[in-house]
C-alpha cells in the first residue's frame, strides 16, 4: 500500500516502449492502485525497430513485435484503453480527456506519447508514397514492395531512411537515396562516419544523391517520379520519406505543461507535480553531459526512461533530488552485414579521432572529444569496443584514459 499522499490512480498516456516500461516499473515497485494505459493505436505495445528491417523484409511476423508477450498481463491489473487518443489534459482538476468523449481522473500521469513521423506534404492521396512509423505503415510498404521489382526513392538519409534503403536493396529493388545535406548523418555521427555510411550504400548498388533537395513528387493516382531541385527527374514506383519525426505534443495545447521540442522535464523526469514524461516525447537536462537539454529517440533510452519515470512518480516528494536520470545515449542500426552503433553525445564541434580499424574496410571506431573528455563514440562492426566506450563515457573519462584502457 502506498503512503498517504502518493498516487492511487495513475494513467499512462502512450502504449509505447516507454509507456509499457513505465507500467512494468510501477507494478514492480509495488504500486497496487488503479493503473490505466491509453494508446492511440489499436495494438498492444509493440517494438518499432524491426519495422524498417526484419519485419519489412518479411523475416519476422507481428507476434515477434509484441512487447507484452513475455509479461503476465493479467497480473498487471491494467485497464487498457487502446485505439483511443488523448485529446487534452487539465492539470488543475487532474482530468485526462479522450477522443471517445470520456474523461479519466488521475493523481499520477505518465506522458509517453512518443513522436509522429513527418510526411511529404501534398502526397496524402498519392499511392506509392510512404512514411514509416506504425505497423500499418510497415504493412502497406511491405505489400507494395512485394509486388515485384520496384524503383524506390528514399527521401532523407537518416537512420530510418537508410535502413529502408538497405532492406529494399537486399530484396532486389532499384534504390536511390536523396539527401539535402552534403553528408548524411553528419549531426548525429560526424562527417567521417557519414561519408563512410554513404559509401557503404554505394558498395551495395544504391544511387546516393547528396546536397540536393526534393522539388516535388509527380503522379496522379500513383507516384511516377521525384523531381529534384537541380532539375533531375527520378522515375519512381515507391517513395519513402525518411525526414524525421516531431514529438507528439499537440494534445497538450493549453495544458500548462512546458512544451519545447517535447515535454520539458527536470533532471528527474518530472514535468509538473504528479506528472512525468518519458521516451521520444520528453526533453530533460542530462547531468552527465553538463545539463545539456536533450530529447533522445532511441530504443534503449525509452526503456530506461520509462522505468525511471515510473519510479519517480511513485516517490512523490520523497524522491532524493540527487538521483537524476543521466544516461549515456545508445543507438544501433543494422544495414546490410554491418552493425552501426553510436554512444554518447556527438556534436559538430567535437574533435574526432579514428581509434581502431579502417573506414575503407567498413570496420572501425571513432571517438569524439570535447574539452579533453570523451563524450561520444561510433563503431561499425566493433560492438565490444563501443560497449567499453559506453562505460568510460559514463565515468567521464578523458582521452588519455580511453587510450590506455582500450590499448
Give a structural overview.
- The chain has 3 domains: 9-116 and 246-318, 3-Layer(bba) Sandwich (FAD/NAD(P)-binding domain); 119-243, FAD/NAD(P)-binding domain, CATH 3.50.50; 337-405, Enolase-like, domain 1, CATH 3.30.390.30.
- It is 22% helix and 31% strand.
- It contains 8 helices and 27 strands.
- It has helices at residues 17-28, 135-145, 159-170, 186-189, 191-203, 299-315, 383-394, 399-405, and strands spanning 9-13, 34-39, 78-82, 86-90, 95-98, 103-105, 108-111, 115-117, 129-131, 151-155, 174-179, 207-210, 214-219, 223-228, 233-235, 238-241, 245-247, 263-264, 270-272, 275-277, 282-286, 292-294, 330-335, 338-344, 351-358, 363-370, 373-380.
- A hairpin with a 2-residue loop joins strand 23 and strand 24.
- Helix 1 (17-28) runs parallel beside helix 6 (299-315).
- The model has no long low-confidence stretch (mean pLDDT 95).
Topology:
Blueprint: E1 9-13, H1 17-28, E2 34-39, E3 78-82, E4 86-90, E5 95-98, E6 103-105, E7 108-111, E8 115-117, E9 129-131, H2 135-145, E10 151-155, H3 159-170, E11 174-179, H4 186-189, H5 191-203, E12 207-210, E13 214-219, E14 223-228, E15 233-235, E16 238-241, E17 245-247, E18 263-264, E19 270-272, E20 275-277, E21 282-286, E22 292-294, H6 299-315, E23 330-335, E24 338-344, E25 351-358, E26 363-370, E27 373-380, H7 383-394, H8 399-405
Helix pairs in contact: 1-6
Amino acid at each position: 500500500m502506498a503512503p498517504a499522499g502518493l498516487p492511487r490512480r495513475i494513467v499512462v498516456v502512450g502504449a509505447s516502449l516507454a509507456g509499457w516500461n513505465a507500467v512494468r516499473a510501477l507494478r514492480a515497485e509495488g504500486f497496487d492502485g488503479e493503473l490505466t494505459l491509453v494508446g492511440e493505436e489499436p495494438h498492444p505495445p509493440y517494438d518499432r525497430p524491426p519495422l524498417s528491417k526484419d519485419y519489412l523484409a518479411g523475416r519476422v511476423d507481428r507476434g515477434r513485435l509484441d512487447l507484452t508477450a513475455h509479461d503476465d498481463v493479467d497480473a498487471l491489473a491494467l485497464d487498457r484503453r487502446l485505439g483511443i487518443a488523448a485529446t487534452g489534459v487539465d492539470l488543475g482538476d487532474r482530468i485526462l480527456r479522450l477522443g471517445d468523449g470520456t474523461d479519466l481522473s488521475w493523481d499520477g500521469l505518465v506522458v509517453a506519447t512518443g513522436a509522429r513521423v513527418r510526411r511529404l506534404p501534398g502526397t496524402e492521396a498519392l499511392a506509392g508514397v510512404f512514411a514509416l512509423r506504425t505497423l500499418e505503415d510497415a504493412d502497406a510498404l511491405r505489400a507494395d514492395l512485394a509486388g515485384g521489382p520496384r524503383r524506390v526513392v528514399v527521401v532523407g538519409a537518416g537512420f530510418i531512411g537508410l535502413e529502408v534503403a538497405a532492406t529494399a536493396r537486399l530484396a532486389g529493388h532499384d534504390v536511390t537515396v536523396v539527401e539535402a545535406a552534403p553528408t548524411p548523418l553528419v549531426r548525429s555521427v560526424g562527417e567521417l562516419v557519414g561519408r563512410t555510411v554513404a559509401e557503404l550504400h554505394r558498395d551495395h548498388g544504391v544511387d546516393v544523391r547528396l546536397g540536393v533537395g526534393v522539388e516535388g513528387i509527380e503522379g496522379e493516382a500513383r507516384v511516377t517520379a521525384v523531381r529534384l531541385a537541380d532539375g533531375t527527374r527520378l522515375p519512381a514506383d515507391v517513395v519513402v520519406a525518411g525526414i524525421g519525426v516531431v514529438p507528439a505534443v499537440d494534445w497538450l495545447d493549453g495544458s500548462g505543461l512546458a512544451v519545447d521540442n517535447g515535454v520539458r522535464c527536470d533532471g528527474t523526469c518530472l514535468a509538473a507535480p504528479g506528472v512525468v514524461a518519458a521516451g521520444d516525447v520528453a526533453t530533460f537536462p542530462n547531468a552527465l553531459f553538463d545539463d545539456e537539454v536533450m530529447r533522445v529517440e532511441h530504443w534503449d533510452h525509452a526503456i530506461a526512461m520509462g522505468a525511471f519515470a515510473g519510479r519517480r512518480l511513485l516517490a512523490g516528494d520523497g524522491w532524493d533530488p540527487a538521483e537524476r536520470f543521466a544516461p549515456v545515449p545508445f543507438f544501433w542500426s543494422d544495414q546490410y552485414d554491418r552493425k552501426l552503433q553510436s554512444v554518447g553525445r556527438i556534436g559538430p564541434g567535437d574533435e574526432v579521432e579514428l581509434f581502431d580499424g579502417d573506414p575503407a574496410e567498413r570496420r572501425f571506431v571513432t571517438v569524439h572529444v570535447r574539452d579533453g573528455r570523451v563524450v561520444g563514440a561510433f563503431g561499425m562492426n566493433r560492438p565490444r569496443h563501443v560497449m567499453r566506450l559506453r562505460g568510460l563515457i559514463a565515468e567521464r573519462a578523458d582521452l588519455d584514459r580511453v587510450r590506455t584502457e582500450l590499448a
